[in-house]
Amino acid sequence: MHCVALGMTRSDMKQFMGHVSLMFHLGKVFAIHVRLLLNFQCWRIRDGIPHNEDGISSLTSMIMLDFAETSNIASLQNAQKSCDAQTRSTNRTTSSRKQAIATLQSKELVVASLKGGERTWITEHLSDWHASIYVVDDANTKLTIPSNRYIIDHYDKLPDIMVFMHGERYQWHNDDPIYDAVPIIRSLRLPHVFSAGYAPLRCAWIPGCPDELYPLNPIEKGPEDRRLTEAAYASAFETMLPNTPVPSVVGAPCSSQFAVTRDQVRKRSKLAYERIRRWAMETDLPDRISGRILEYMWHIIMQMPAVYCPPAAECYCMTFGLCNLTCSRITNCEKRYILPKVVTVPNGWPEEGGGRNGWPVPGWNE
């Protein structure tokens, strides 16, 4: 994720992520990735997940040991000491965290929908959540975007946990074998959200990770949306988050769906969110470009690193309790997600449309 700063080209980076065996020859880069893995290992401990649960720790330990053979040992030792210190602090914080979780009073689905979209699935299958449904393209509804934005309107009375998501139940980017949002929300581990403050609803890296945008070195050739987004990102970033350096690399799981706590949201002032909304309302950029810019800014707005790409195995385990997956790569786990070749969900999905137009046959993961 930080390999560009160490002299790797974009092509090198893609090859690195696609072929894990190359990791054993990249020297100093390993220490960075091991520190990342150690941090997530510490988070798992703070979340109360057993250190050896379902082999995930063994996988992580194996990767860390192999890295250690060719990495900066002192750096790894320092990272391990940091992890140990965080683990020791768990005894002091577990009680208060459990108390906070036990006293959870409110949780809200904040849904961005289109006029005429099917939304009954939310009340039918997620009735234990309160839902605020914003209709993007209907000015006559009570909740519209961007003139009525949830965080601004509720800043002083936010619920304990919010999940920001899209309105259609089945969408190409939903991290589920049949692209279903229902099991994603049902399996969401609220203790982890409390602990981390922010959690993407997607663990598969592609698209978005590890390096979706290079704001300081925008491409001049390539897909139009990518070119226009990179060209406009730095200026938009400076407008929305003044006094924050524009990152050289931005990466995060797509696609603007995440869970966040009230405290995490309030790490920025209401004025900051009003400034972000003002940019969204006043920009001359096409909607698809301004939306893409925000898509790769939300994690930064919520105080996460510019490159925020949790290892897939750790993400599935911590965020959704899926700790027995087979994950041979840091980028994805087997039998969880296939990137469809066409983004439009087939009519009648999942009962119809499987095996056609680039969509897998439901049950492919069984």
UniProtKB/TrEMBL annotation:
One Pfam match: DUF3431
Xref: InterPro entries: DUF3431
Protein name as annotated: Uncharacterized protein
Originating species: Paracoccidioides lutzii (strain ATCC MYA-826 / Pb01)
